[in-house]
Structures are given as structure tokens and as C-alpha cells.
Amino acid sequence: MSHLMNTYQRIPVAFARGQGVWLWDEAGRKYLDALAGIAVNTLGHGHPRLTQAIAEQSLRLIHASNLYRIAEQEKLADRLAGISGMDNVFFCNSGCEANEAAIKLARLYGHGKAVESPAIVVMDKAFHGRTLATLSATGNRKVQAGFEPLVSGFVRVPFNDIEAVRQVATHDRSVVAVLVEPIQGEGGINLSAMQYLRDLREICDRQGWLLMVDEVQCGLGRTGKWFVYQHAGIRPDVMLLAKGLASGVPIGACLARGAAAQVFQPGTHGSTFGGNPLACAAALATLAAIEEEGLMSNAERIGGLLIAGLREGLAGTPGVREVRGHGLMIGVELDRSCGDLVGQALEAGLLINVTMDKVIRLLPPLVMSEQEARQALSILVPLVRGFLAQAPAIAARA
Ligand code: PLP
Q: In Å, how far are 104, 152, 257 from 290, measured between CA atoms?
């Protein structure tokens, strides 16, 4: 009997080492990693710049406490403010904690404006985490079921539907913020229209609401710019990061700007581990590598190549609903359940994921080369075609 709690239906493979976009299992079999630990291993595996930074920092100092100044944390906050246009940062350890911080920040902001029961507009199909507040903000009943009573104070609207937000603005005086993923990841790689983001910004400005963007999955260079909101030419009031920020070392961040940056005061929020020297050194090395090794433009180029290759390779294939994505955040929506493809791809030496039951998801490391992208396509395209040809019966169930 395993002593692990039964929270994951794990695929029976364990990886022993990695290099670049490649992983090797315990038996020495090699796999092309097109998932990067679900958008975590920004620099791939074993990146020398990252491993050196972690090794050197671990020799100097791993942890002190947020009771004291932490030089690496201050440096990382400066760097993040510089690339994002935000004013300040709270560091934590994961995406749900970053979202939790934003939810608390929005409530405190609301109380500061004498709103008795502050509410946050959230989206259908959103995913913000698995703590009680963040699963309540999440737009997926499967994540919430069994954990009722949910945390109140969320008003849900359809994603990409600006009219629905306008309706809330006219009717609901309790709203103080909007929380949105500029590209929904767990929800099936759903891209927000850039105009939608600009319109949200305008509504938030008019209403005095905070615009809070969850870039935990889509941010940090994956789409060709540091952050997705930068494609829309706007700035949010609050932004959340985690996953790829330190390329695999746990870290989360809640960044704020303007009035939102003044909300937390000593004692209102905290984290024991958040922003410790080790995690911050790893994040600084990750950001330096993204910039100096041209990984944002690589992500845009290789992502474009993958999307075009998938569109071309799957054109006219019955059962393919849509190939969509931005940079290295890619979804292929089928008309039927396709969880079985994960195991088939693994057998063929490729790591992928399926989300929302019918969407094949690719989130490769930003270091993927053209040749590696073509290798991924050469495995995935025939696999999807073969799967669709052999699984017509499943279509009837869908
Ligand atoms: N927000 C988004 C957009 C995510 O994709 C995720 C995780 O998938 C989270 C928040 C939660 O992050 P974590 O699993 O680090 O708590």
C-alpha cells in the first residue's frame, strides 16, 4: 500500500533526470517534454545557469525569515516591477497562495472604501487553485464539489463576455475587483480577446474596481512578451505569478500597482517561506536567462511553428474542433474525450496533457528548438489522427 494520499491518479512512470526538453525515466527511456511540469520548467531541465544559481545560493543562505530584510527578495521585486510596470510584490510559494493574497487584498481594498461585503467578478471555466477561497473563485464544479460551504463573495460571468461584466457594474454595488486569466489554462486554453482585456480595464477604471490578472500559467514569456496583458497594451492593478517564475523551485508572487499597492500593511498578510533567498535566486536566474537567451521571441516563434504544424497536420481530420493558442501555450480541442492520448503519447516518447476532457494541452519549456518542435509534431499529429480514426464510438458518447 502506498503511503501517499490518493490525490493524483498518477501515470506509472518516474523520471530520474532531465536535460533541456528531454526527460529520462528510471529505466533510461527518453521522453520529449512538451508539458514542462504544467508550465513550470521555463528553462527546461538542468539549465546550467539555474542549477549554478541554486547551488551557489544554497551554499550561501537558503532561508532566513521575512522578519528580516532579504537582499535576493528585494532584487527580485525590483526586477519584476521593472518588467511588469507594477509597484510592489508580495512573495509566497504557489499559484493558489498568490490568488489567495489577491482575494484578501481585494476585500481589504473594498472595506477601505466602506463596501460592507466586497465581491469579486470571476469567470466561467477559470482556475485559480485549490485552497478554499481559490476553489470558490474557480469556475469548475468538479474542483468545488464536496468542499461546500464555498467562500462567498464571487460573482461569476461568462469568459470573454464584456456585456455580462457591464451588467454586473450597473446592478451590483458590492463588487470591488475583477479576477481573470488572460489565457485560461486548466479551462482548456481559452484566449481572451485583447479588446476584452482593454474593456475590462476601462470598466475597472470607471467603477473604481481592481483589475486582477492571474498569469500563473500564461505569464513569464510563454506568449512572446513577459505578460499576456502587455499584448493588450494595458496594465492591471494586481497580477499573480507562480509556476514558471523560478523554473521549478516553488515560488508565487502577488504584484500590485497604485492604490492596490498600498493595501497590505504589516500584519495583514504573510508567508513563512515566501520569497526566501533560494527561491529568489532561482527566479532571478530564470528571468535573466529568459531575457539574455532570447527565450520570449523563441517562445513566439516555436509556438507559431507548433500551432501552424498542428493546424496543417490535422486539417480536415474529422473530430478536430480547433487548434488554438498563443506562443507556447497550445490547445487542440477534439469532439470527444481524449484522456487516453496521454498514455499513448507517453508510449511514443512524448509528454502531453489533456484538460477539460477534450483539449490536448502543450506547454513546452521556452528553450524548445525548431528541431525538437518538429519532433513533437511528428509524434503528435499521427497519434491524434490514429486516435480519432479508432475512437468513433467515443464520439457518440461525447
Ligand atoms: N492559477 C492558475 C491560472 C493556474 O493555472 C494554477 C494551477 O494550475 C493556479 C492558479 C494554482 O497554482 P498552484 O497549483 O501553484 O497552487
A: 31, 39, 24
Alpha carbon distance 395, 19 (integer Å): 38
Centre of ligand 1 from the C-alpha of residue 175, in Å:
23
The string of DSSP letters for 61-109 reads -S---TTS--HHHHHHHHHHHHHH--SEEEEESSHHHHHHHHHHHHHHH
CA 254 to ligand 1 centroid distance, Å = 13
96 in contact with ligand 1, CB cutoff 6 A = yes
Mean pLDDT to the nearest integer, 167-183: 98
Peptide bond into 149 cis (omega under 30): yes
> What is the signed CA dihedral for 106, 211, 96, 287, rounded to 10 degrees?
-130
94 lines ligand 1 (CB under 6 A): yes
- Looking at the CA of residue 96, tell me the nearest atom of ligand 1: 16
pLDDT (0 to 100) of residue 392: 60
pLDDT at residue 172 greater than cutoff 50? yes
CA distance 277 to 273: 9
Q: Is 151 exposed, middle or buried (0-12, 13-18, 19+ CB in 10 A)?
A: middle
Q: Give 339's contacts (C-beta < 8 A, 6+ positions apart).
A: 354, 357
The phi, psi pair for 214, rounded to 5°, reads -95, 100
Considering only CA atoms, which residue is closest to atom 13 of ligand 1? 95
Specify burial of residue 177 (Cβ count, 10 A radius: 0-12, 13-18, 19+).
buried
pTM (two decimals): 0.97
216 lines ligand 1 (CB under 6 A): yes
What's the pLDDT score for residue 381?
98
Q: What is the dihedral of CA 224, 230, 231, 236, to 10 degrees?
A: 140
CA of 267 to the centre of ligand 1 (A): 25
Contact indicator for 321, 334 with CB cutoff of 8 Å: yes
Q: What are phi and psi of 156, to 5 degrees?
A: -95, 140
Pairing of strands 252-256, 88-92: antiparallel
pLDDT(395) > 70: no
Task: Please tell me the distance from the alpha carbon of residue 316 to that of residue 140, in angstroms, as a whole number.
Answer: 31
One-letter identity of residue 94: S
Q: What is the DSSP string of 180-192?
A: E-SEETTTTSEEP
